[in-house]
Design goal:
single chain; 350 residues; alpha/beta; TIM Barrel; eight-stranded parallel β-sheet; globular; binds adenine; binds zinc ion; ADE; Adenine deaminase; zinc; hydrolase; adenine deaminase activity
């Protein structure tokens, strides 16, 4: 393992911004900024229950996951045409490139759109075209993860999978998101088994608000390769051991956890604890337009609040490459670039 050189504390924020990183937990509908929501509403003739951008932003005061989801699904109602999906994803990729994201795996929620009469083709074509352009024009390698909404039935998830199969080459994985409590992973056992047969990668949100039992069943019943969030694992020592031993990555989202009151304060976040226990934690933005920051804001704010160091920064970026579904050649190239960034940081003042 690379010996991380000592980095003076005042240079750490710039190092966090400069280091190459992968983003593995971003809901593309959660990157829809209020300005773009209003622009798309006007373009598409959709009425919004808010007078202007400022009053919409004022509504972003959440008490838990559900209070956020209600507003998040309302925001997505302005997305109707292929170009809308492209514009949303492109805006995210421009922000990601500025944050030195070299690889991004984007969640999208087809049921949020197909339930409103938007076709699967419209959603997938718009997002996929933006992914291709991100690689070619911005140097951000990108792929898509189709998420099933867990507050809906498994039957609806199967229908969604059926609708998506003509576009099988345009997404690499399935995931599970939306309201966690009361919707345990095992509700989706059969559809995940089918996705595994189809050769798709598998991930699921678990242990965001839900108990460690949901993380166990995501692993043992759904057979997922990564856990999205997973911060509740600290309440179960055997689970912590399992996650560390099997190098199951956790895609942690500090500002999301703060805004949805998972921790009373960012200073109470357990990211350091997860890393010190040997877990493959990563840092991500979840829904950056709603939670007050993109991936670099998540890094700089959680480091400032909890006193993490350059060693943790290196580990988090390294974990993000290792846990990604990219190929080994790409991973080695990004890891090389990461080491170079740390060496440059020590040699020169950024
Ligand atoms: N943080 C989150 N948890 C569950 N579902 C989501 N959908 C968008 N953001 C989510
Ligand atoms: Zn999420």
């Amino acid at each position: 393992m690379f010996k991380v050189p000592p980095v003076p504390a005042q240079r750490l924020p710039e190092l966090l911004r400069q280091m190459p990183k992968a983003e593995l937990h971003i809901h593309i509908e959660g990157s829809l900024e209020p300005e773009l929501i209003f622009a798309l509403a006007q373009r598409n003739g959709v009425a919004l229950p808010y007078a202007d951008v400022e009053s919409l932003r004022r509504a972003y005061a959440f008490t838990n996951l559900q209070s956020f989801l209600d507003i998040y699904y309302a925001g997505a109602s302005v997305l109707l045409h292929e170009q809308d999906f492209y514009d949303m994803a492109w805006a995210y990729f421009e922000r990601a490139a500025a944050d030195n994201v070299v690889h991004a795996e984007l969640f999208f929620d087809p049921q949020t759109h197909t339930e409103r009469g938007v076709t699967m083709a419209t959603v997938v074509h718009g997002l996929h075209r933006a992914c291709v352009d991100a690689g070619q024009k911005l140097g951000v390698n990108a792929s898509l993860i189709l998420c099933f909404l867990r507050h809906l039935s498994e039957e609806s998830a199967f229908e969604t999978l059926e609708q998506a199969l003509p576009f099988r080459d345009k997404f690499i994985s399935v995931g599970l998101d939306s309201s966690e409590l009361g919707h345990p992973p095992e509700k989706f056992a059969r559809v995940f088994a089918r996705c595994k047969e189809l050769g798709l990668h598998l991930v699921a949100h678990a242990g965001e608000e839900g108990p460690p039992a949901y993380i166990w069943s995501a692993l043992d019943v759904l057979k997922v390769e990564r856990i999205d969030h997973g911060v509740q694992a600290v309440h179960d020592a055997a689970l912590m051991q399992r996650l560390a031993q099997d190098r199951i990555a956790l895609t942690v989202c500090p500002l999301s956890n703060q805004k949805l009151c998972v921790f009373p304060d960012l200073a109470d976040h357990n990211l350091g604890k997860l890393l010190e226990a040997g877990l493959a934690a990563t840092v991500n933005s979840d829904d950056p337009a709603y939670f007050g920051g993109y991936i670099n804001d998540n890094f700089t704010q959680v480091f400032a609040a909890t006193g993490l160091t350059a060693r943790h920064a290196y580990q988090l970026a390294f974990n993000s490459f290792e846990a990604s579904f990219a190929g080994n050649a790409d991973k080695r190239a990004w890891e090389h670039k990461l080491k170079e960034t740390f060496e440059r940081c020590v040699e020169h003042d950024y």
